[in-house]
Amino acid sequence: MFLFVAIAVGAALITLVNPMAGIVLGLKADVATSIILAPILGDSYGEGENQHHTLLITLPVLSVLLVRMLLQIFSRRKSMAIPAFNSVDLGLFGLIAVVAFGSFRSESFVFGSEIVGRLLVLGVSYYIFSRTAVVCKKDIRRSVLSFMILLWLLAVVSGLYVLSNPGEIAGKVLSSAGEIVGKVSLTKVNPISFSMLMGDAILIALFWLLSNRDSARGMTFLILCSLPLLFGLMLTTAERGPFLSLTMAAAFLTITLILIGNDARNLVYSAIFFCAVLAGAVVLYLSQPALSEGLAGRISDIGSGESTVGIRIRLYSQALDLFSGSPLLGSGTGALENINGRGLYAHNLILEILAEQGLVGLAMLSIFLAGLINRMKTSILVYHDPICAYFAALLLFNLLESMVSGTLWGMKNLYFAAGMLVVLEYYARENSANYWESPCHACQYGCVDGCERMSHAHHKHFVTGHFDSVP
Asked: Where would you tag: which of 77, 109, 148, 439 has the fewest CB atoms within 10 A of its CB?
């Protein structure tokens, strides 16, 4: 009991001192609790994500963030510049209302209400906190970089812990059936959560290398050296969804940052990044020959009805049957799990919403995603903001993963990234408007030599925090 109290108090204190650190712990509570508690509790500790132990970190973090947000709102500080209600809010809170209404039509109102509670507390709360700028109140850029470094550190520490553990993933990659498994009884790290954490850190490494490499070269070197470890461990989980999602999100971020930077050197740095990533795969295959055999078995069982792909196909079919029975409003919140048992949800966000909330729920989700896409386009194409590009890639990474292994209430990272994208786009727009309306704009004093380059440099500083070199 003392250990549990110490973990809860520690999470609250960390969040009080550094809200971004609390956010990282809250988003990755399942992995964090596995690392802390599994060595102590031993066999009595189950798989991290299925344990209530994660609430030891999540609830104190959310409580401190809630108090912090309320104090800032009531004090009406000028730094609390909150974006006005917009289409992203309309879509998300409309979806919450539809899910809440669906709980009354569920076969099990208690279970439906539990899902609504999870959605509000464990999911959308991260959107609210990031959207109200509670975690980037004073210095947006510094807060975001703090988030990235802390998340990368957690990934590296988690990876080193798994490798140093007697039951490390890298050493026992085959089960009795000859199939790769990403979880080991001694580590108790959930494979999907672990794989997603490694993917988050790899995206951070890519952003850092293409956009922030010159600000701290020692940190850049450490991040580059960690890439083989991160990617190698991600492969050992044999989770296909996170790997494919990361591939597409990394390609999106690479192209976006190259266009924003308008720097041919970024092509070289991109090549260095992908070579470092592939080095992890090569080293892993050379050191663990059984891995290739296990991956081959993982691919060959795709057509089997008992494989994860076969189970998903059955769940997709069930979801479509539920949707056809009630296309407008769906069959009620938690309908699929009421039929199959806990944990057997649709494993596809769109099919889950169609089956349980119908076309009305899909319309709300479409409004939410359309609003986010509009902000991605504006922040990247108009304001050329690399930080917004990173959160757009993080959102894409988690959205793609939700198409094969996600549920509406469990997308904490997606909600957080969405809130950050909304508030960062708002700040970029505000800073841009303030600059062009300010008397310091060179063109207001007449056309002077080099004024266009000077204006561009100051505009880029307001938006991204970096000056171009102006002769």
From this structure: 439
- By three-state DSSP, how is residue 174 classified? strand
- Report the alpha-carbon distance of residue 21 to residue 141 in Å, rounded: 15
Write down the pTM of the prediction: 0.84
Residue with tokens 């992203």: 88
Which tokens is 163 given? Answer: 């490798």
CA dihedral 167, 172, 173, 174 (to 10 degrees): -120
420, two tokens: 């950050």
Distance CA 285, CA 378 (A): 42
Q: How far is CA 38 from the centre of its chain?
A: 24
Taking alpha carbons only, the member of 263, 224, 278 closest to residue 386 is 263
Secondary structure letter of residue 83 according to DSSP = P
Q: Say if CB 254 and CB 386 are below 8 A apart.
A: no
Q: Are 243 and 195 in contact (CB under 8 A)?
A: yes
Neighbours of 335 (CB within 10 A): 29
Tens of pLDDT, residue by residue over 96-140, are 999 888 888 877 777 778 888 888 887 888 898 888 777 766 677
DSSP 180: B
Residue 280 pLDDT level (bands cut at 50, 70, 90): low
Cα 42 off chain centre by: 29
